[in-house]
Design a protein that fits this description.
single chain; alpha/beta; 4 strands; 50% helix
């Protein structure tokens, strides 16, 4: 019997043929020696071509679930060097993606910090403007309060140089007598519109007017003030002149 290693005698796939065909065409060497035909292989003793072997093995690209050609076991049969290269490439791509992700995350954090800083800066400016307005309003209120007259002092020339008293106004009429002040209030020349009115008059009436007449004149003055205003009346003691 001829040796099975000879292509002409046995019909076996020679070693110089592609490795895929050698793997896909299993040969039972025992049956080859016995001269029997393999069930799925071409008949022993006849010359087999690569196309015949491919057709007998029905080598067709399989389809995966998405309609693409599935990777065959032969295509995955990589050498150790090729597998290590693929792993290195994958590791390098993973590292690049992770680095890009870190950069993007850092940029997002920086953008968030800039937004928060801008919001706080806007709030600080708004508070400064509100504080400025409040301070101006307080200053105006204090100035108005200082200008507010609560007490009006009505007198002859004695207190005419009195000044600097907060919330007080001095109405000085030189040489004024009790009856003169009564007439001015009655005619509206002197208006007592403050919460408190201090009346200092009568010094010029001491000479030439009896005590009873002065008392009657004071009562008439007070009655006239009450008929014109709701101010609280305060009378001061007479100051004797030399």
């Amino acid at each position: 019997m001829a040796s099975p290693t000879k292509e002409a005698d046995t019909g076996a796939i020679p070693k110089h043929r592609p490795r895929e065909l050698r793997r896909q065409a299993p040969v039972d060497y025992k049956q080859m020696h016995e001269g029997t035909r393999h069930k799925d292989s071409p008949s022993v003793g006849s010359r087999a071509s690569i196309g015949d072997v491919s057709e007998s093995l029905d080598v067709r690209p399989e389809k995966d679930g998405f309609g693409f050609g599935a990777v065959s076991a032969t295509e995955l049969d990589l050498g150790q060097g090729d597998a290590e290269k693929v792993l290195l490439d994958l590791d390098r791509e993973i590292e690049e993606l992770e680095s890009s992700l870190r950069v993007v995350s850092s940029q997002l954090k920086a953008a968030s910090l800039r937004k928060e800083r801008q919001q706080r800066s806007d709030r600080l400016d708004r508070l400064r403007r509100e504080l400025f307005v409040a301070e101006r309003q307080l200053q105006q209120a204090e100035e108005e309060e200082q200008r507010l007259v609560i007490v009006k002092i009505v007198s002859d020339s004695i207190p005419k140089y009195v000044e600097g008293i907060y919330h007080a106004e001095v109405v000085s009429i030189p040489g004024m007598r009790i009856n003169q002040l009564t007439n001015k209030i009655q005619k509206g020349h002197v208006i007592l519109d403050t919460p408190i009115s201090i009346i200092h008059v009568g010094t010029n009436d001491v000479v030439g007017m009896e005590a009873g007449a002065m008392l009657s004149a004071y009562n008439n003055l007070i009655s006239q003030i009450r008929s014109k205003s709701n101010t609280k009346i305060v009378t001061s003691a007479l100051l004797m002149s030399s």
